[in-house]
Amino acid sequence: MAVMRYQQAVRLAMTEEMRRDPNVFLLGEEIAQYQGTYRVTEGMLQEFGERRVVDTPISEIGIAGMATGAAMAGLRPVAEFMTWSFALSAMDQLINHAAKITYMSGGRIQCPVVFRGPAGVGTQLSAQHSHSLESWFAHTPGFKVVMPATPADAKGLLKTAIRDNNPIIFMEHAGLYGLSGEVPDDTEFMIPFGQAAVRREGTDISLVAYSRGVQMCLKAAEALAKDNISAEVIDLRTLVPLDMATVVASITKTHRAVVVQEEWRNVGFAAELATRIYEQAFDELDAPVERVAGADVPMPYAKNLERAAIPTDADIVAAAKRALA
Amino acid sequence: MAKTVVAPPTEDNISRAEMLDLYRLMLRVRRLEESVYRKFHEAKIGGYLHRYDGQEALVAGIVPQLQLPQDKILCTYRDHAHALACGTSAREIMAELMGRATGCAGGKGGSMHLIDPDKGFLGGDGIVGGPIPISVGVGYALQYTGSKNICVCYFGDGAMNQGGVHEAFNMVGLFKLPVLYILENNKYAMGTSVQRSTGQLDFVLKAKAHGIAGERIDGMDVLNVRRIAERVIKQIRETGEPYFLDVECYRFFGHGIGDDNTGGQKFYRSEEEVSKWRQRDPISQILRDLKHKGYINDEQIEAIEAEIKAEVEDAIHFAENSLEPPLESLYENVFSE
Ligand SMILES: Cc1ncc(C[n+]2csc(CCOP(=O)(O)OP(=O)(O)O)c2C)c(N)n1
Ligand SMILES: [Mg+2]
Question: What CATH number is associated with residue B70?
Fold first, then answer.
């Protein structure tokens, strides 16, 4: 085990996989010479050279297409979007091409490509730089959607992503890059998709989240404990595939749930999660599922409005108390 | 045959007052950017912040010649200068940067999204290449209504590599729309030099490929920009056809505030290169010209500095004493009434 930051764990996963498999290569904006906008790819050009760490122009359609095509032709590209907000112009390549080619070809084409990068809100980055849009990708058949919440998961899930034979949407959270934690040294440390993690055990209520939402839930659980409320925190890790068994097992114990997402509330992933809970555990529930999510507005710049638009641990505490009232 | 007297290219028919205006506008931009930087480091301004230092001639040489607000301007996130040149007050700019209700977007936009439609300024854009497809529609609307007005669309060298740009250029070239493209060619997109980002460095050729005429010009000399813009704007008004200017310039600071903090600059350009370009500072150049012509003396220079300092300080005072937007406004403006 080594203690490292989330951002370093992402780099470690890519580095180990590139050492293992010569067909893995990286492409993206400012990832090579500049060492990455968030320094995620620091030193990788130096180790692997220009052929395997490719600086691209600011051409997201080109990046998505190059990665998809290279995967169709047998390589294992890891494409970085400087942030997921910038992936929007590449949506056609992603959704109409990368996500569908395996199915459209009757399974004759494999598309082992990872699209990764920071997602989610920053601080005062305003309307065009604060997206993750995981719900859009989870909505699309053909993508696996991965959103790690800890440094160890960043490593273990990214390695699994790179070895998977399908297009993977791998969303890091810029707000987690600095988070430190223990990360296994084992170069075969892999976390399988579709296995949620119970981050904290509890008996009174289940808090279900992913990505940075997990860290908020852990804080909320701390606060709830002071009021003698025992909250269980579940980290979904992957939205597709989704591990409902762990969620249902938890609710069978607690009988109450809060589902959390940072993105816009309307038609978001948390709504899917709540529906599945109703479908699969209705009889276990003692209260309606509570939903905590971002405000349905383009992200405002002003500090006070932004604060009001982004869900917080206090919102989770309040939701838990409503469910328990 | 009578001899025509052609003025040598460096001599302009420009009055003292006009020259002083160019100097004043560029200096206002520079001093505003400097103050904005200070305020960012005092944590009064947040988010991303991109300075225009070094590129002032691209707005000063063009925007004052427009018929605002009927003409329209679009630009990138590096937009403080454009707003100021369009006539947005330093107060409203500073208040927006500080996220106050009195800002030009009510605090909702911030540095990358300054906007002032009453002044013809249709705003900055945080997405590289984002404004260029929009320029097609703005140009079409201007043509549609039969006006002689034009749209000026600014964007960076990095944006030339966005797919949307080529769709837009093709449509503007096809429909012959009154759009003036200003490529703010400061040689870098973040840390990527133009040599490292395109297989065809002749940007004018790319415009021509889509049926848009254009030329490459020096953007460090405001008189040069002004002279060429005067001709080109007139031509667009007369013909209704688009034009493309690849304007060579240089940004004196890092890409944005983060680039400066991390010393990211050292990965892509040398101190020597920066200081070489700083010697062509557009503000120093026009000041030299003004002095050379005897249009300005030390006392006047000081008076202009003092006047601008007062404007900036007033803007800061105004912004700092303005209220944050009310919380109820969070859900306002998602839709128009
Ligand atoms: C579609 C998109 N991709 C990436 C970014 C991140 N980004 C912001 S500015 C920038 C560089 C743009 O360079 P250029 O177009 O030359 O303009 P300059 O900053 O030099 O004025 C990049 C990559 C973005 N905002 N939008
Ligand atoms: Mg540039």
Answer: 3.40.50.970
